[in-house]
Every structure is written in C-alpha cells, then in structure tokens.
Amino acid sequence: MLAVCHRRIRTQCATLLRLRSHVAMFGVDDAACTAARNVMSYFDGVARHHHEDEEQSLFPALLESMAGSDAICLRQLVDSLTIDHRELERLWDTLKAWLVRIEARDAASPEAGEISVLIDLYDRHIEREEQELLPMAARLLGSTDLNRIGNAMRLRRGITSS
Known about the structure:
Blueprint: H1 2-26, H2 30-65, H3 69-103, H4 114-140, H5 143-156
Helix pairs in contact: 1-2, 1-4, 2-3, 2-5, 3-4
C-alpha cells in the first residue's frame, strides 16, 4: 500500500507541474480549478495519512524489530525520513495557498521553484523509502506486524472492514 501511495504522489506532483504550465498558458479555467481541487484533496488526505502510516505504525514496528548497531542505522533513517515529512508538509502548505487561489479563480502563480522543490524532495524521499525502508520492512516484519500496520492504516482512513 505504501509503494502504491508513492506512485500516486508522483502522479499528483506531475499534475502540479502541468497545472503550473496550464495556468501560465490559459489562465484559471474550469480544468485548472478541477485539477487544483483534486491535488488539494489528495495531499490533504492520502498524503498526510501516508506520513502518519509510516511514523505511527511502520517506523515503530521496524525499530522494535531491530537490535544492536542495526537499530542505530535504522533510527537514523527513520529520523531523516521524519524530518523530510515535516519539510514536505511545510512546502505543501505553501503550494496549497496557490491552489486555493486557483480554485477561487485567482490567476496568481507560485513563486519560482516552489513546485520543483516539493517534487525534488518527494523524489529523493520516495527513492530512499523504496530502496532502503520498504525492503527492510519486508525482511524484518512478520505477518502479525504487517496485519497490525495494515489495520492501523485502514482505521486512519475510516475503513472499518478488511
């Protein structure tokens, strides 16, 4: 589920890039308003839940599964990814203000580079999770841990049945 979310985050980031170009070329039209609304819905919901899934469920389960020097390396990885989450949330809040203006049909554009900074950080962050964190989780966590994490993820989204 986390890897699927990564693909969707990348799709939403691509939509941000297209939206910036679209608004520059065509102004704020119905398509821009719809795209802005959809991106806000995604990042305010699923993306935030994704960070919570990792920080409240996956990271603690991984840390509990490790011992000795491996735990130190894992702690550094988890701390670094958590710092990324806070920065991504800060960047998102800045871009959301732009999207709110688009939805209100205001043609203001984001400051140069804001979208690129968010996308670049997400790319690096996702790459690190997919290359380091998720393989480690697959190797270290058993079915009981994975079921517990999956249940917590569903509850965060208001899904009460499996």
